[in-house]
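Ligand-bound model needed. iron/sulfur cluster.
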Amino acid sequence: MATFKEFRNNIKPNWCPGCGDFSIQAAIQRAAANVGLEPEGLAVISGIGCSGRISGYINAYGLHGIHGRALPIAQGVKLANRDLTVIASGGDGDGFAIGMGHTVHAIRRNVNITYIVMDNQIYGLTKGQTSPRSGEGFKTKSTPEGSIESALSPLEVALASGATFVAQSFSSDIKQLTSLIEQGIQHEGFSLINVFSPCVTFNKVNTYDWFKDNIINLETMPDYDPSNRVLAMNTLMETGSMITGLIYQNTEKRSYENLVYGFKEEPLAHQSLELTKSEFDNL
Ligand code: SF4
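Prediction:
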């Protein structure tokens, strides 16, 4: 069985020292080992941005895609290689701006992949512009007077879109993050894990200390029930989406590939027509 070190390669990340993305890379490697994967059983597909480099920094199959398109590629990889574990990754600009249409439809399609968003609330690769996750009043080169737009709440959008697994973590909490990635990989269906990942170079507002002061760990809410979708939505709205942990999981809904013809001995397509597979093939 592979150890987490076997998911390392000899490429040195060129992220800035202190960037939150380092911990997310380590958490993916640890989670992959902890769930018993081998490097040849994992594919990491990324979009564009500082975080998009991650697919090159993990010893596994990898594809550094185009801006906002990690999810279409990742879904195609999974549907063509159903025995692979597929992780898609990218930043909040990649997934929640140019890629938001793909994100919503991937969520409702429920293909069995894990999507890890490295949410630094700014565009880092292009040297610091306001992103869809930046708060009102956020000053950057693109909003010198402060942003007048509201920050997107992607986890609320995910719940409203029929998500079956929604989680959030902080790059500094590598124990929680590793556990959530393990749960996401093991979940049957699409798992969304948003990770607060500070950009130490360009975001001087949402710093490590700011997140520590504002995050509410769901472990402090002993009565929280992650199978309750209404509770999940209400808790996100009441806390400004600053909760971390497993926010919602639906274990009843089957994944896309388990509902599609050819992925099970008796897929629903046959059952609904009351045909055997060979009868269906000969239609
Ligand atoms: Fe990380 Fe920001 Fe540096 Fe990009 S610019 S590597 S997000 S610290």
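Strands lie at 42-46, 61-64, 85-91, 114-119, 165-170, 191-196, 216-217, 243-249.
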